[in-house]
UniProtKB/TrEMBL annotation:
PANTHER family: ANTITOXIN HICB (PTHR34504), UPF0150 PROTEIN SSL0259 (PTHR34504:SF2)
Taxonomy, superkingdom: Bacteria
Species the sequence originates in: Chlorogloeopsis fritschii PCC 6912
Protein name according to UniProt: HicB family protein
Amino acid sequence: MRQTKQLIAIIEREGDGYVALCPELDIASQGDTVEEARNNLVEALELFFETADPSEIEQRLHTEVFVTRLEVSIG
């Protein structure tokens, strides 16, 4: 039986495309659109979970990741 896991994806424009990062596992992918970058990241994560040793998953998985907005003084 397949399990599902909810993970964070941070997607940002880079040049003419988009880069998608999963900070919990430090796995990234890219695409020409936001949706393509997202889908490629899902595929990369699924391949990682299919092939990685459980000890590698445990070692890489950050269970506490916080995404927030900061205000900083400039100049």
